[in-house]
Amino acid sequence: FVKRWTVKNSGSCIWPDDVRLVFVSGDELEVVTEPEIEPLSPGETAEMRLTLRAPAAYDSYTSVWQLQYGEEKPIGEKLVVTCRVSPPPTRRPTATPTVTPSPEASPTPAGTPTPIFAPQIVRYSLDRWRLDPETRTWYATVTLHVTGGDGHYVFYLNQVSESAIFVNGSELSAEKCKPIMGTFYVTSAGQVSKKEFWIPYPDQPDCE
Across the strands, what pairs with 145? Predict the structure, then answer.
């Protein structure tokens, strides 16, 4: 499949010759064709196309990319690719209808579509944690458990924006002995919900 973005040089200098699109986090999808990125002058726009191959496993995938130049120097905000791999629909055999004479024909009510409920973060779990003694920073690997929506979820940390995307199962951090806290957001089927979280430092006796 092909993901397209329209990018614009909103700065005051022409882009360097070595600008490239780089995968930075999330699900690493197979790249079929990388985009050709020309150095844009200030105010210029261009369409950028990235051709990817979706995984074979049925699931939802979120891949985060960013324009960079030089030694991993970023340009602009992060760019997000989301896709959902679903099983093909099951073909139903065609049945020959049997007509039964009836004195009166009763109309069959039309079926109503199944409603899609707003996504809800049921809970979050601390899968593992680690401490960096040099920086006195502790890191928590957090997994969100969600219901509702259409099964395709995008998560955010503290605000709903592309720069705040949270990849489920990644790390959060805080100063040693201090809790990790904030607000998770989840979007699905055009709906959004949020859940505040508070994760205490696991080794409290070490803080006394």
Answer: 123
This model's pTM is above 0.85: no
Distance of CA 44 to the CA centre of its chain: 28
Pick the CATH number of 120-207 from 2.40.30, 2.60.40, 2.40.160, 2.40.128: 2.60.40
Decide which of 168 and 137 is more confident.
137
Q: What is the pLDDT of residues 3-54, one digit of tens each?
A: 888 888 888 889 888 888 889 888 888 888 888 888 889 888 888 888 988 8
**Residue with tokens 């020309």, as numbered in its chain:** 38
Q: Which residue has the higher pLDDT, 130 or 97?
A: 130
Q: Give the Cα separation of 200 and 157 in Å (integer).
A: 18
The backbone region for 17, taken as left when phi is positive above 0, alpha when psi lies in -120 to 50, beta otherwise, is alpha
- Each domain of the chain, given as residue ranges in start order, spans 2-85, 120-207
Q: Which of 161, 199, 165 is nearest to 182 (CA)?
A: 199
Q: Of 165, 163, 170, which Cα lies nearest the Cα of 144? A: 170
> Rounded to an integer, what distance in angstroms lies between the CA atom of residue 61 and that of residue 95?
38
- Digit-coded pLDDT (tens) for 148-185: 888 888 999 999 888 889 988 888 999 999 989 999 99
From CA 116, how far away is CA 187, in angstroms rounded? 13
Residue 108 backbone class (left: φ over 0; alpha: ψ -120 to 50; beta: rest): beta
Q: Is 157 helix (H, G, I), strand (E, B) or coil?
A: strand
